[in-house]
Amino acid sequence: MSPPIVPPSSPNKRHKKAAVVDGRKKKNYTMNATPQRNKRPRPITSTQDVQTSRNNPALAQKIQEVSARIIKENYELYKDLENK
Q1: Torsional sign, CA 65, 69, 71, 72
Q2: What pTM was computed for the model?
């Protein structure tokens, strides 16, 4: 024998009631309410694996050159827009 079919409005079902704020119903957001953390952090093999401007002077120089070029280009674009 199969179990009886219970309609959704049955008092057996538990429903959360939405809180009322300023006469409007407040939505209940339950998805990802408590985010899960990683159980264990990723191991760091070596600090030398990551190239940064601190441990690579050539990279620091390249970053400075590119930054200066972008700033100059942005300034020229700004001037062109201002003169329109």
Answers
A1: positive
A2: 0.41
Position 55, amino acid: N
Helices (H), strands (E): how many in the chain? 1, 2
- Say which residues have a Cβ less than 8 Å from residue 63's Cβ, sequence separation at least 6: 53
Question: In sequence order, which residues have a C-beta less than 8 Å from that of residue 14 and are 6 or more positions away?
Answer: none
Give the integer Cα–Cα distance in Å for 73 and 66.
Answer: 10
Q: What is the pLDDT of residues 7-65, one digit of tens each?
A: 665 555 555 555 666 667 666 656 666 666 777 777 766 655 788 898 899 999 999 99
